[in-house]
Design goal:
- The chain is an alpha/beta fold.
- Among the domains are: about 140 residues, FAD/NAD(P)-binding domain, CATH 3.50.50; about 140 residues, Polyamine Oxidase, Chain A, domain 2 (Alpha-Beta Complex), CATH 3.90.660.10.
- The protein is about 35% helix and about 20% strand.
- It has a seven-stranded mixed β-sheet with strand order 7-6-17-18-19-16-20. The protein has a five-stranded parallel β-sheet with strand order 9-2-1-13-22, covered by helices on one side.
- It is globular, with a radius of gyration of 22 Å.
- The two termini are about 15 Å apart.
- This is Amine oxidase domain-containing protein.
């Protein structure tokens, strides 16, 4: 069997196939495994460049961590959080709802209640099958919220949980249906707004450990620096042509890369017309992940958790991201979609200054002088080209969603971008890897 891509999805598929007694080759374009998980040492600091969070409902990931002997630790969350309002004023608070004023807070809770009723109705497995799917897919997330409420602040605050925080696209560019899929995949909208749930724990040593250990078990079956350029497929099997004069023949293939990279492969014969159209309506978002490492987590001395929500500011979220048993303190911050575009236009020095000034407005002048400052820019990464994950434009999910996971002859598909539960998380990648492997095992047994 052939697997294209050595991220969590591809390596989980390969592991399952090997456990079923099949021979597998994994071809990876990069010089490393892990896909959108990547743990690096930058100027002496260990940074998780990509995905890192573990939530209580992520059963496939938790099972994998247990099997691999990997431990987790809780994100630091003691003390008060900070909310930055539209005027840029800083408010310290505890609890789940931002201190946005009694009326706005009540409206936020009301909107969350509506979404918590809609999300399970739509579900994560087949949102396109819902009776109102086309209707929900024809209205943008931004516009739908404003049909439900006249409170602009409440709409913006609720919007951030899906737009900037998850899909990393402007709220006008994707549909209500896509937002409901995001909520349903996380077990409900209430889970998205609860950072203590959705950002619960991290892996000791970094999330990339999952892929590193799976690859270690697969040994020489994993081939790096081998981007697949051409994939011939027919009823009798596939032939992959990769860099380095690598040619792999197999009965079936798992394509375990993000949908925006499918076009990098020359499929022969070409994929069916509807599939080619589908790929033109799905894209990754854009987010800058900011890492600022200090000599200590000094904000804790001031009774702060390190958590900041600033829905009206360029840096919209900040968290204490200090590593396990590390004396140094790390803050991780995020700048998404249109704000990320504007940030990059500033140039490196001005961009750094603007981000650190916003951190200093929340935590004081010590935030201006990190020992390490690093920006994760997945949009510039050759074999990713965006973050966190792929989503459809308005109307695309109801029109094409049902085709995403369907095998095409000997071709099977696996990545977090097409997952149901665990959509756009490592948990979803593992689930899709297992599912694609099971499809092959079942087909070969027929």
């Amino acid at each position: 069997m052939l697997v294209i891509g050595a991220g969590a999805a591809g390596l989980s598929a390969a592991t399952r196939l090997v456990e079923a007694g099949l021979t597998v080759t994994v071809l990876e374009a990069r010089d490393r495994v892990g896909g959108r998980t990547w743990t690096r040492e930058i100027d002496g600091a260990m940074l998780e460049i990509g995905g890192q969070w573990v939530s209580p409902d992520q059963e496939a990931l938790l099972e994998t961590l247990d099997r691999l002997g990997l431990e987790t630790f809780a994100r630091y969350r003691e003390g008060e959080s900070i909310y930055v309002d539209r005027e840029g004023q800083r408010h310290r608070y505890t609890g789940e709802i931002f201190p946005a004023g009694a009326e706005t807070e009540a409206e936020i809770e009301r909107l969350i209640g509506i979404l918590d009723e809609l999300a399970p109705e739509v579900g994560a497995t087949a949102p396109w099958a819902h009776p109102r799917a086309a209707e929900f897919d024809a209205i943008s997330w931004h516009h739908w919220l404003r049909t439900q409420s006249d409170d602009e602040s409440a709409c913006e605050i609720v919007s951030i949980y899906v737009a900037e925080a998850m899909l990393t696209k402007p709220a006008h560019s994707f549909s209500l249906l896509q937002a409901l899929l995001m909520a349903a995949s996380a077990g409900g909208f209430a889970n998205l707004v609860d950072e203590d749930f959705i950002l619960d724990r991290r892996v000791v040593g970094g999330m990339q450990q999952v892929s590193l250990r799976l690859a270690e078990q697969l040994g020489d079956a994993v081939v790096l620096n081998a981007p697949v350029r051409r994939l011939e497929h027919a009823a009798e099997g596939v032939v992959a042509h990769a860099d380095g004069d690598v040619v792999v023949r197999a009965k079936r293939a798992v394509v375990a890369v993000p949908p925006n990279l499918y076009a990098r492969i020359d499929f022969q014969p070409p994929l069916p017309r509807l599939h080619q159209q589908m790929h033109q309506h799905v894209s990754l978002g854009l987010v800058i992940k900011v890492h600022a490492v200090y000599d200590s987590p000094f904000w804790r001395e001031d009774g702060l958790s390190g958590t900041v929500f600033a829905p009206h500011s360029p840096v919209h979220e900040v968290y204490d991201n200090t590593n396990h048993e590390d004396d140094k303190g790390t803050l991780v911050a995020f700048v998404s979609d249109l704000q990320a575009d504007a940030s990059f236009k500033l140039g490196p020095d001005a961009q750094r200054a603007a981000i650190l000034e916003q951190l200093a407005a929340c935590f004081g002048p010590r935030a201006l002088e990190p020992e390490v400052f690093y920006l994760s820019d997945w949009g510039a990464e050759e074999w990713t080209r965006g973050a966190y994950a792929a989503s459809f434009d308005i109307g695309g999910l109801s029109r094409y969603g049902a085709m995403q996971r369907e095998p095409l002859g000997p071709l099977h598909w696996a990545c977090s971008d097409i997952a149901a539960e665990g959509y756009q998380h490592v948990d979803g990648a593992i689930r899709r890897g297992w599912a694609a492997a099971d499809e092959i095992i079942h087909a070969l047994g027929d």
